[in-house]
Design goal:
Elements: H1 9-35, E1 41-48, E2 60-63, E3 70-74, E4 79-85, E5 95-104, E6 110-121, E7 133-141, E8 151-154, E9 161-162, E10 169-180, E11 189-200
Antiparallel strand pairs: 1-11, 2-3, 3-11, 4-10, 5-8, 5-9, 5-11, 6-7, 6-10
Length: 217
């Protein structure tokens, strides 16, 4: 009797085929889930303040806590310009929440007000940029925290801004409107970053231009 050596090749091929099919099905399920009304997840749309203003009315780049990293020190009235592009993953009809990351080199209890001027227009030749609207973020620095604490001041629920259409641009000026109670001489106030908390319910849209959602409507 002659015995032939068993070759695992057919079984290996089957396993590879099942694995490929499984990965394909998972990808398709993820796409379907992204198009369904799933729970909204929070995400950040970010802007680095170092890309902002220069010249008169601009904050001053200063070393942060003795290190080589330089961040903007704001005096009252100083401002920088930032912009945001609305991504294809946004949840429609949900607000977004601008917030400012900042710190100070002192330990005095003081209050700052960041004033955000913004102009929003839908893309794809749909809207013109309107005159600017404004919203304020006021936050008090707790002197028990010590110097250089990472602060995040965010707009209130009542001041949140309606999310515009995908591919809109949000043009924003971040200005230090007021700073009181930071001692004499006043502690330096460093503006570090600005971003938008927004909710997303999909990986992207079906189409890259209006109508973005197609059969979802």
């Amino acid at each position: 009797m002659t015995f032939r050596r068993y070759s695992p090749a057919p079984l290996t091929g089957l396993v590879n085929s099942v694995s490929t099919l499984t990965r394909y099905l998972l990808r398709e399920l993820q796409k379907i889930a992204s198009l369904m009304d799933i729970d909204d997840l929070w995400e950040d749309n970010t802007a680095d303040l170092s890309t902002g203003n220069t010249g008169a009315g601009a904050p001053t780049l200063t070393n942060l806590n003795g290190g080589p990293y330089k961040a903007y020190v704001f005096a009252v009235g100083d401002a920088v310009n930032v912009s945001f592009h609305v991504k294809h993953d946004v949840s429609r009809n949900k607000p977004f929440y601008p917030h400012v990351h900042w710190t100070t080199d002192g330990t005095n209890a003081g209050t700052v007000t960041w004033r955000l001027h913004y102009q929003i227009a839908a893309g794809h030749q749909q809207e013109a940029f309107p005159t600017a609207s404004t919203v304020d973020i006021t936050q008090t620095y707790d002197n028990t925290l010590g110097a250089w604490t990472h602060m995040i001041g965010e707009v209130s629920d009542n001041a949140a801004i309606a999310m515009p259409q995908v591919d809109s641009l949000i043009l924003m000026t971040c200005e230090l409107e007021a700073a009181t109670g930071f001692g004499t001489p006043a502690d330096d106030i460093f503006g570090l970053y600005i971003d938008l908390h927004y909710q997303k319910d999909r990986e992207g849209t079906r189409y890259k231009s209006p109508d973005f959602y197609g059969l979802e409507e």
